[in-house]
Structure formats: C-alpha cells, structure tokens
C-alpha cells in the first residue's frame, strides 16, 4: 500500500493510466515491473523471521509484482488499500466474509450478479447470515429495510444484465447512519467512469478480468477499501490465504495502460449500436443507462463520467413460448458476436440472459433479454451481424 499521489489527479485519464503505480526507477529503469514468482521468502536472521520485520514474508502476502498493481488500483480508486484475488466473484465474497458474522443481516440489490446471489443464498445462509434483496431504485428508502443487525449493504450499478441504476450516495448515507458497511461491484464503469469511494462506498469491487485485463485471457479480482474498513479487509484476505498470481497481476497491469483508450472505443461503439437498436421495430426496449430513454438515465448522467461496452435489449416476441426459440435463432445466426460469458475483452459477445432468479426486478414481458458486449470491431460489421440475427429470429 502506498499513499495516494493527488498530483496525478490533475492529469487526463490516459496520462494517469500510463503512469500509474511504482516508478520505473524502482526497477532499475525498466518501464514494466518484473514478474516475481515467490512462495518462500528468506529472512536475514532469526529475530527478523520471528517478528516478520521485513516488507515481504511469504508469497501469499504480496510480491513486487502484485504490489505494483495494488498501488496502481489505489491511485485509481483513491483507496487506503487494495487486495488481489483470483476472480471477480472472489472479489465480492471476500468482503462479505470480512464484515459479516453469524446472526448478521445483509441487504443485497436484486439486480445483482447471479453468482453473488448464489453465494448469499447458500454459503451465507449456511453461516447463519440472513439476506434480503431490495429494489435497485429504492435510494434513501432503503432505511425501511434496515434491521438492528444489518451489517452490510451491497450495491451494483448498473445492475447485471438489465442495468438498473442506483443512487449510491443516498444508500451509503443511510447505511452508515446505521453502522453498516457498503460494498459496490463497479465492474461495468471501472474507476475511470465512477469512483465508488467518492460516493460513500466503503469497499469497491472489480472483476479485473474485464476491462482492466481487456483481452479475455486473465481471471483476477480487486477489492479496494477506505481507511475505516481496510484493516479488517486485509486481515480477512490474509486469513483466507487468497491471493492473485504475479503473472495475472502483470497482465492486468499491462492492460491498465490501454484501458482508457479501449473504454472510449467500447463506449462509442456500444452507444452507436444501442441507438441503432432503438430504431428497430423488432426491438421492444434497449437497456442502456446512457440512453435518455432509459429509466435510470438521470442518475447515470449525474454520477457517472462515461459508459462501457455492455448493455442489453429486449427482442420483441408476441408470445412467451417464442422467447427462447427466437433468442436461440438470433444467437445462432451471429458470426462476429461470439456466444460466451464474461465481457470486457476485445471481441464482441452475446448471451441470452436468464432472469428467473429475480425477486423484485422481474424479467421484461415483451420478449427475451439479449446481452451484448460490444468489442473493438467496426460498428458497420456488427450491425450486419445483428441484422442476420434479427432475420433468423423473425423466421421463428
């Protein structure tokens, strides 16, 4: 962990991304930090070994490579400290384990990433922690759901798959009045377009697998905390023995250097495709917060500095029994869009979204929801590909 260099905040985003983290002079002038593979770390004497009075003590507690990435993320987040974990899901679950105990209560946004819901409904339940799900649009009204034993409020904005916005500042203010920790999955926006800790969030979570890595070949999560919550997060991280690998950390560090440029391209192309989809009769709705037609657009415009490359749309269908056949026909006709999970890489992806887990935010009634990750391809080619999908769906 290093202190935040406020002077870098004055530079543009791409300048900051190019110079995040340690100085090359810390590594003999090499512009990229070395990849340090480590498990055992030697001590100069028994006293130092006993007290662990040196910077590195064991591979799970960090190396120069992982520290370089943590320093960079801290600069982006404005956080007191960051830990690395092997995946985005782990980045969500470690803070839950850090701040929740048997008998506690947690509030989880109903538009949450499904694996997070599964963890809450299985692991947390088994540990004696109760969970309630809340409407993402609740804002300060979340006060009505707070219980005496509420210890954590989890947010995600925009929401997974259907992209509902949340008033993060209002929710954080209420949670803090009642002594609850606020966590946020901010993978969609990255700290380039939204900085959770500036809006009252205590712990900011990212699947660095997505935009920071950017090439669909790395699994890594980052968890960044403010000064109040950092010690407990760090202690839990060490106790669980969870750590990100130096190779993956190096790849993500390299990806950060171009993330601003890539995000700008993802944003531009996604908005172009989303706007085009809005004009089609075979599209019932486009679910993209940066579109003025979207219900949460005002919140997005107030709080966010940009949008990324992932959004959804509702394919028009005249009867529920045609939802899946039309969705599958659409997807099977695509050639440039790959059929795969995850997102944030260079390539475009499409998936038929399942929303059967929702308690409050029910699935749209007009047709199946298809999620698109708009990659770095030319928009004209992507539109042609989607045209083929629409033609195939119309034939069903």
Automatic annotation (TrEMBL):
GO terms for biological process: L-cysteine catabolic process to pyruvate; transsulfuration. It catalyses: L,L-cystathionine + H2O = L-homocysteine + pyruvate + NH4(+). Its cofactor is pyridoxal 5'-phosphate. Belongs to the trans-sulfuration enzymes family. This is Cystathionine beta-lyase. The keyword Lyase applies. GO terms for molecular function: cysteine-S-conjugate beta-lyase activity; pyridoxal phosphate binding. The modification N6-(pyridoxal phosphate)lysine is found at residue 210. Keywords: Lyase, Pyridoxal phosphate. It holds the Pfam family Cys_Met_Meta_PP. Gene3D superfamilies: Aspartate Aminotransferase, domain 1, Type I PLP-dependent aspartate aminotransferase-like (Major domain).
